[in-house]
Each structure stands twice: as C-alpha cells, then as structure tokens.
Design brief:
Order of helices and strands: EEEEHHEEHH
Largest sheet: 6 strands, mixed
Shape: globular
Bound molecules: zinc ion
Low-confidence stretches: none
Helix content: 25-40%
Radius of gyration: 16 Å
Number of helices: 4
Number of strands: 6
Distance between the termini: 48 Å
Structural class: alpha+beta
Mean pLDDT: 92
C-alpha cells in the first residue's frame, strides 16, 4: 500500500520506444481530455512532473507572456521555470532514460499501469525579484523563438 501524497498524482503510463537505441520503457501520458494539464520530462529522461495551467504560478507566467501566445510557447515557458528535479531541467519532450534521446515513440494502445507523478513547483521562479521574473520570461520567449526557427 502506498501512502497518499497530496503532491503526487496518479497518471496512466504507456509503453514507449526510443528510436535511437530501441530501449523500451514506460512514460506517463495524459489523455486529450486533460485540458490545462501537461507532463514535463527531465533532460535525462528519468523524472516526470505534472503541471497544471490553472495554478497561480502558471497564471503568472501566462499574463507575462505575449497576449496572443499559443499553447506551445506557454508550456515551453512553464517547463522552463519549473523547479529542477535532482538538478535536471525540464521540458515538454519525453526522453529516453537510457540515451536521453528525445526521439521516442509512444504506443498509446499499450498501457503499462499507473505511475505516481510529482506536481510541479515554481519556487525558484516566484521568489525572484520582480525585475528578474520579467527578464526571465523575456529570455524564455527569445529561447523559444530561437529553438523553433532553427
Ligand atoms: Zn534511447
């Protein structure tokens, strides 16, 4: 039996295959009906974080982003300001835990059970001075544009 933890959420995991090294592993994924929610993955592919767009910190970054910003920029930015997990930064891309490649293929027809996923926190971001928060968001937008125009 597992102790119920308020900071964790149970999410269905699916079989996922790495296109680079063919490693097969489980990754939690949300259904299309999970509006306003997302999963962020650590850069080493070992950790998952559940993010909710309606939380105060997520709302804060939303109002600081350009008015007409799409959901891609929003999630990219939120992942960027999410507190690191074991020193690893997070992104919206699932990664292979063996070779860290982001070229992974999820098999949504193959559930592998429930996984406990920790909820995102944004302490490092919200405790920054006001000017630094604004600067950080500007940098994130710039970074997003750069990564998407390569
Ligand atoms: Zn791999």
């Amino acid at each position: 039996m597992t102790e119920k933890n308020m900071d964790e959420i149970r999410i269905t995991a699916f079989e996922t295959t790495c296109s680079s090294c063919e490693h097969v592993f489980s990754v939690p994924a949300l259904s299309d009906f999970s509006y306003g929610q997302n999963i962020f993955y650590s850069e080493d592919g070992r950790y998952y974080i559940h993010a909710n767009a309606f939380e105060a910190s997520a709302k804060l970054i939303h109002v600081l982003l350009p008015k007409d910003c799409g959901s891609e920029l929003f999630w990219f930015s939120l992942a960027t300001i999410t507190d690191k997990i074991n020193g690893k930064s997070l992104s919206v891309n699932a990664r292979c835990p063996r070779c860290t490649s982001a070229s992974v293929k999820r098999n949504l027809g193959k559930e592998t059970g429930d996984m406990s996923v920790v909820k995102a926190t944004y302490h490092d971001f919200v405790f920054l001075p006001r000017e630094d928060i604004i600067r950080k968001v500007k940098e994130t937008v710039k970074q997003f544009i750069e990564t998407n125009t390569q």
